[in-house]
Amino acid sequence: MFRINNTFVGILHTLPLLLGLAAVGVSAYIRVHGDCQKVLQYPLLFSGLFVSVVSALGLVGALCRVNAALYLYLIVTFFVILAFASFTLVALFVVNKGNAPHRASRVGFTVRDFSPWLRHYVSDDHIWEDTKRCFLQARICHGLAVGANNVSLVFKHSTTTQFGCCKPPEQCGFKLNGTLWEAPKAGAAVDDSDCRVWSNREEKMCLDCDSCKGGVLAGVRKQWRDVSILNACVVVVLTIIYVFACYAIRNNRLEYSKYTAQRNMRMRKLTSIHD
């Protein structure tokens, strides 16, 4: 019974171990092949490494019957569960806080729609210049050649970043003339700085617009929301394994008690024979 139980617990520990290694792999992929918003690179890297190490510790303790390793695993895992749960709650609160957190992305976003915590991704001029440089190198607007007949179809399938950075904001009332956006003869429909910033040149377009930064933040918010859901799943898995690890310690104790009792019995028999 002991071997079956502890083997089962050991197998359970391979799940978070594999998940942790997968997170490290995804982090490496984001670094090499990811887009210009690599906000999840380091969270995935550090959490993946930590979960992998802790899971390996529990795996050794369960399969090799090392109670010291299991005790250390339980202590560390308890704080890991607390940290992941706290991070998930805070992240969900932060990413959903704002003036219009559920506003449809096809309408467009502005920076003020998001929480101050998210705004730091675009508020620093130096960081934003690096982001724009990355956009230009990636040519995010290059594949969005539009005409009056297909503009709605093209931007229907675009990312929030492309929607905010590669076309004039909806409120400006610009119309397509061939493949160029033109302001109404009476001027922009609203007095908005984004309407004045817009340019048809691919290297400029609306990369300096507030709507572009809002589109970027919408993508960042989605990434943080996804990682929060993933963290919640990890918390559930770790909690279940934590409970089974407690049973593994109990199994180790029972096995040790059984071994001690058998050894004492053999000693008493040897003593009685010598007497």
TrEMBL record:
GO annotations of cellular component type: membrane
Where is the chain membrane-spanning?
A: 44-63, 70-95, 229-249
Q: What is its main location?
A: membrane
Q: Which domain of life is it from?
A: Eukaryota
List keywords of the entry alphabetically.
Membrane, Transmembrane, Transmembrane helix
Q: Where in the cell is it found?
A: Membrane
Name the Gene Ontology biological process terms: auxin-activated signaling pathway
Q: Tell me the membrane topology, using the record's own terms.
A: Multi-pass membrane protein
What Pfam families does this protein map onto? Tetraspanin
Q: PANTHER family, from UniProt?
A: TETRASPANIN-8-RELATED
Q: Which family does it belong to?
A: Belongs to the tetraspanin (TM4SF) family.
Name this protein carries in UniProt: Tetraspanin
Can you name the source organism? Answer: Vigna angularis var. angularis
Q: Which gene encodes it?
A: Vigan.02G260400
